[in-house]
Amino acid sequence: MFRVDLNCDLGESFGRYQLGEQEEILKYVTSANIACGFHAGDPTVMRETVKLAIANGVKIGAHPGLPDLNGFGRREMNITPQEAYDMVVYQVGALQGFLTIHNETMQHVKPHGALYNMAAKSPAIAEAIAQAVYDISPSLVLFGLSGSELTKAGEKLGLQTAHEVFADRTYQQDGSLTSRKQPDALITDNGQAIEQVVRMVKEGKVLSQQQIEVSLQADTVCIHGDGEHAVEFAKNIHTKLTEQHISVRAIKEDLNGS
User: Do the record's keywords include ATP-binding (predicted)?
Assistant: First the structure.
């Protein structure tokens, strides 16, 4: 049987600004990437999101991003590898505090937005992030774009590494995601997005914008929690995967073979 993890970016509210329906979407995902305060989130939101994830039996990961609240961490910054390392250590440590008081173990680390995309292409940034994760705990799973520099860096260090694919994003022929600056970056048809996911999991392929088949590895699927119909989409994709005899389980369970 095929297996896949469903992950979702959560905890991205800030102060009085509320984003997404966290409590509902946690019923359908298996891993949660919780914002750590740099691109979104705040201490109260982090605590509440951790509590909700635990209550729903969802595995928890840190979602470190660039320090850019106004740009939601989606604008690139000219940072050094050392700065990337320090940012990851700092943000993972912040989330770990809330997990410790609940006696909960962190499952993974997944960079956010521009930091994620930079690490997908830059070996130096990728290696710095992977090293930060390894130095915090070699038992953590590193999430990165399938076939990217980040997954390569994680595997080189001996980290458990999950190759990630996206349900609602289009792809380029080199396996990268289409830039959000492009009008065709997002897939808005839920049926099309779900069919793309099923094919990526079962066949390891996706059709790029250039109409070229791209091979990839789908260990975990990202679904965004801030979309207009995010909860409905999460429910539908979970149902469709199950119908296709694809087991939906947290990545740590998959990697441990349980």
Answer: yes
